[in-house]
Amino acid sequence: MNQSLIRFKESYLLYNFKRDRVAIISFIILAFLILIGVLAPIISPYNPYDAMNIDIMNAETPPAWVEDGDRDFLLGTDIQGRDLLSTMIYGLRLSLIIGCGAVLLQALLGIMVGLVAGYRGGKIDSLLMRMADIQLSFPYLMVAIFISAIFQVAFGIGRFEQLAVPLLVIIIGLAEWPVYARTVRASVMREKSKEYVEAARVIGLSQRVIMVRHILPNTMTSVLVISTIQVANAIMSEAALSFLGLGMPVTKPSLGSLIRSGFEYIFSGSWWITFFPGFLLVLLVLVINLLGDWLRDVLNPKLYKG
Amino acid sequence: MDTLLKVKDLEVKFALRFGDLTAINGISFSLNKGERLGLVGESGAGKSVAGFAIINLLSKPGYISEGEVIFNGRNMNSLSGEEMRDIRGNEISMIFQDPMMTLNPVLTVGTQMVETLLAHKRLNRMEAEKIALEKLEKVQIPSPKKRLKQYPHEFSGGMRQRIVIAIALITNPSLIIADEPTTALDVTIQADIMDLLLSLCESEDMSLILITHDLSVVSQVTEKIIVMYAGKIVETGPTDLVLREPLHPYTQGLLKALPGSLQPGSRLNQIPGVMPTLTDIPLGCAFHPRCERRDTICEVETPDLINVDSHDRMVACHMLGR
């Protein structure tokens, strides 16, 4: 344990990180946002899910520093009278949960498929990869509309609101697994022909052990890099779905549904309901992408920027 | 002496689109317990293919079309995949050419050693680690305890080949197949590694098949030699005898091509021409287009491998004694 800590301290990764200001700032902001999301129930001034806290008379209060603002609501309130800051913090939490959950699901499916397809090759490979192609040829919005429409008809809107989070995780996860499958397959095919795989076969290890213990760890670099970008993508997808009214319900708003609920009022002067959640979303996705870019540059020495 | 390995009329083919290619064309030899055999020839002669054929691990499209490999009384071609896996790495180990490539870069050396042991023996992790430590000492790696926890990139080339040898030794195999184990190393380390391999074979009573194109390495280590050309054995016998008095023109050419016998400044000797590709092996003796002593019979008739004296000395050449 101690040794791996020392190894980390001396690593190229950390060395590079310390010299890259963009990476440091992005990391600090991301860590801060994640912390806020995790600690939402403790940090946020109000609980936006608690109907007792909400007074419709407070609706559309502007931010505190604007004229007519209320000191109790730092960033103002939304159309239902919820404190915008608290609602955003909870929305951030939901966006992060859905983003990470969806990526976990994508990675799980994609890595399994990619590993088997790349290692076995032949007919299994063709079959799995055509499935991936078919999956990618459906726009995820269409899949999402189908699934949520069917679900709402089958179980009623009430159930949908309860199960919206896992449902969104599944929808976004299923839509993007081919990205992982393709990346992993490509690296598996590259690794498979290397001599250490031959050596492992000569040692007498079984195919499964070779696949999981020897080849898979060697493909993790590319998995790590696409994972960061996929998290950002999944958060964007969730926001897009929610903005279209297919995602999180208004009673449990994510950043996307907050942007949507404020959008109708933007021309009547209540700009803050859309602006602040939108800004937070952009910030979150931006820092994740910047970190992902940095990681890709560090882990792939062939891609040095000139 | 007990026979450990017996190869009988082994024929390996590669199934390609336009038909089968014969990579190994009926080779036979046997190896006793503790005996060391050198398999020599230019690249493309089928040496490595023979090594892989013995452990039944030819990569597609290669396959054994005829003949049998009998190891310790068992016919290797008739074993199931499970039984075969149990022999590989356990009773027969293999060492490859490039130690940079044969170790997995993301696993520690210790993990890779322990894994090999656990795949074959009923041991717990602690016992396995103890054996791994012992073997690292045996291949003369300094401070083995620390080294077990390190990754392959933290070792030099020679050290890595020692690790590879340690992994090959870890289950106490009775046969080691070393496929050009020193080709990727520089000359001084080459000698160290060969010495190590030799002393280990002697102390552990292991047999060795050394696949190489380097005649000096063969003369150092092996007792018996097989010279291969275009998938066939052209000459075989006790190493010192074959190297002292080569009978086949090909072996003679190989020996003459060694730069050691030359005055500085003179041109290097070489065998004219190149080995034929497997797609168009010439009729008759495969070596005849490059042979200085060829006759008309060489162009039409394939010479048989015949005994020339009481030691298992065999040569395939029409011009023998002429």
Multimer state: heterodimer
Number of helices of chain B: 12
Largest sheet data of chain A: none
Helix content class of chain A: over 70%
- CATH fold node name of chain A: MetI-like fold
CATH architectural type of the largest domain in chain B: 3-Layer(aba) Sandwich
Order of helices and strands of chain A: HHHHHHHHHHHH
The CATH topology name of the largest domain in chain B reads Rossmann fold
Element-level helix/strand string of chain B: EEEHEEHEHHHHHEHEHEEHHHEE
- Global outline of chain A: globular
Shape of chain B: globular
> Termini separation of chain B (Å)?
36 Å
Please name the fourth-level CATH homologous superfamily of the largest domain in chain B: P-loop containing nucleotide triphosphate hydrolases
Number of strands of chain B: 12
Radius of gyration of chain A, in Å, reads: 23 Å
Number of domains of chain A: 1
- Overall pLDDT of chain B: 87
What would CATH call the class of the largest domain in chain B?
Alpha Beta
What does this structure look like?
The complex is a heterodimer of chains A (306) and B (322). With 306 residues, chain A is mainly alpha-helical. Chain A has a single domain, classed as MetI-like fold (Orthogonal Bundle). Chain A is built from 12 helices and no strands. The longest helix of chain A is centred in the middle third of the chain and has 53 residues, at 140-192. Chain B is of the alpha/beta class and 322 residues long. Chain B has 2 domains: 3-91 and 171-315, P-loop containing nucleotide triphosphate hydrolases (Rossmann fold, 3-Layer(aba) Sandwich); 104-170, no CATH class. Chain B is 33% helix and 24% strand. Chain B has helices at residues 47-54, 81-87, 99-102, 109-120, 125-138, 144-147, 157-169, 187-204, 215-221, 239-244, 249-256, 296-300; strands at residues 3-16, 19-32, 36-40, 62-71, 74-75, 92-95, 175-179, 207-212, 224-229, 232-238, 306-307, 314-315. An 8-stranded mixed beta sheet of chain B has the order 6-7-8-3-9-10-12-11, with helices on both faces. A 4-stranded antiparallel beta sheet of chain B has the order 2-1-4-5, with helices on one face. In chain B, β1 and β2 form a beta hairpin. In chain B, α4 (109-120) packs across α5, α5 (125-138) packs across α7 and α7 runs parallel beside α8 (187-204). The longest helix of chain B is centred in the middle third of the chain and has 18 residues, at 187-204. Chain B is globular, with a radius of gyration of 21 Å.
